[in-house]
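Deviations from the work plan: none for this task. Representative record:
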Amino acid sequence: MGCWILNESLSIILVLLWLGVNFYLFIDTFCWYEEEDAFLYTRVMLGSALAWARASAVCLNFNCMLILLPVSRNFISLMRGTHTCCRGLWRRQLDKNLKFHKLVAYGITIHATIHIVAHLFNLEHYNWSQSPDASGLPAALSKLGSTPNESYLNPIRTFNTNITAELLTTVAGITGLVLSLALILILTSSTEFIRQVSYELFWYTHHVFIFFFIGLAVHGTGRIVRGQTPESLTQHNATFCRDRYAEWQMAAQCPLPQFSGKEPSTWKWVLGPVVLYACERIIRIWRFQEEVVITKVVSHPSQVLEIHMKKQRFKMAPGQYIFLQCPSLSALEWHPFTLTSAPEEDFFSVHIRAAGDWTRALFEAYGAEEKVRKELWHLPRLAVDGPFGAALTDVFHYPVSVCIAAGIGVTPFAALLKSIWYQCCKPQTKLKLSKVYFYWICRDVRAFEWFADLLLSLETQMSERGEVNFLSYRIFLTGWDENQAIHIALHWDEKTDVITGLRQKTSYGRPNWNDEFRQIAYNHPSSSIGVFFCGPKALSKTLQKMCRLYSSADPRGVQFYYNKESF
Amino acid sequence: MGQIEWAMWANEQALASGLILISGGIVATAGQFTQWYFGAYSIAAGVLVCLLEYPRGKRKKGSTMERCGQRYMTSLVKMFGPLTRNYYIRAFLHLALSVPAGFLLATILGTACLAIASGIYLLAAIRGEQWTPIEQKPRELPQVGGTIKQPPTNPPPRPPAEVRKKLSEGQEDAAAGGSQESGQTNPLPVTDEVV
């Protein structure tokens, strides 16, 4: 339990910091608007709803500034590379960018709700102040602005209007409605269920954020929040003159107060991130133009397509992913795929499984199902954006690494194992990494095929170099039928495994993680061990629990650090 | 985009609109705004929309995540038969419900959202989608001894179940060498190993 706090501490600190800044901005702005003299007359009509609206507006500015940063992937990759101290810690934090994006989105929703409700009250109060029943100071203030040398305070000029119509004739009103609608559309299409049902719907609807940011920048230009001008404050002391409103016209002590609208300030907050994100998209468009040469296409049995490509100035690290676009299938969709080749190879490759609309269409376009082979120059063109960083670049920084993959989640580890193979080939390199444990849990026997070749060559190479202890891997088959079971039982005593042909035998059923972690902790008593996982959430939770359980309470003892990658 | 089930998104949008209608209505009623009775209507309409939209329909393919506790509402919504199954009716119902709330500023956002949901439902209806309830699978109680129809008549070693079934259907025996039981064919020669 104690080690969970250590492992998760940076995340918790950052969340608390974010909450703290939100609260600070809210309370500070609230108190300012409640006490500021320039807004005394505004407060007379509106009460504290003004302060609620303004405080939530400042928090909205802050959160809208933050929301674009976690999805600026090139920026994050840049930051990942430049940290010199506590690298591992910050890199793991940068992997949680999407969680932070969602957190900030929830913050925007809450503040938007407060803002809208407060302004609803404000409009009603403005309307009431114009009614014939209103008397006293509010009525007097509302009448200001009717003659040419007066400046108005109450944006609603007559009582018998429809407030809705009033709102829709102001810039703030229309943009407010557009903003709220955009936010709600984005929220309803981003729920986890909808992302599962149709990722494309989520992706396309999310682009409504463009309207959101345009509306946001324009929202304050109407200057509807009005307070006394500084010159007027020097001549007209509000605390003294507020009770003498009947004499404002006449007395020299209290000339008519002059009002002006607040300058729009949202653009100052969001300009930076918007420019940064625009650069990201420009980079993507530029990368789209760059030529990608397809050098090899292999169609594997379990609906897996392997594509080898080459591109100028493409540099990758194992575990990174790229975005692929096929213009002939869909002009706007970019889909992420993990790279399965090692950086030492002169091409880069991806293994794509047919799992949805776009991937199945790609299969058909590449003739994966057909018997006749297509020529390489007949294949539809692909555009590549990336590579973007992911957790596996950290594997080499731990003395011991445990890599666990479930099903197709083995793809990032394919790149890693290949890279380890190449690194081992170079006799002069000194790796910090001295031991790799690899677990692969798989349901479908046929899925082994493309990966089995890699493991076979690794196994041979390791035994040739006499480094049998560097990599220890176990494969777990979790689905079989009776015929397979009989076949396996009959060939149980043979030297090589009947399914994979490897010397390391396949195990059946799911691994007992308690035993595995206990054994690893026992073998490496005072090391920091990185645990890397790619696969379904349920197993991720189990592994996180194991990491916490088997990390020793003593900081010098064995420590498991959990890293997860998923799309 | 060809295979998207629009009704799923329409459902999320309508549920959100219901909640927004309720909140707008509460603000208008509690604040006693002008024409606040529209706010009261909005609360009622919002509650109706939420109750109707809470049970998620079943997806055409793949598994559907149920909302927490939606079983009870599913049985209620199912009772209305074609009224709730058909998405054309839902689209027009939502459009009709959203109009009165448009007269009050506090609820106009709810109107806009519900109108959008109505439009998406119309699209879903045009594409032939329907609301199908998510049925609870009946729990299969483990039947103790249910598969034992006939106790074995011969002592061990016995052939496996399939061969026993074939025997009971009257297949002629094909005695392989080394076996003392009729109908047992061994894939490998069996020798008595005494170690």
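Chain A touches chain B at residues 113, 116-117, 120-121, 123-124, 127, 163-164, 167, 177, 180-181, 184-185, 187-189, 191-194, 196-198, 200-201, 204, 357, 490 (CB under 8 Å).
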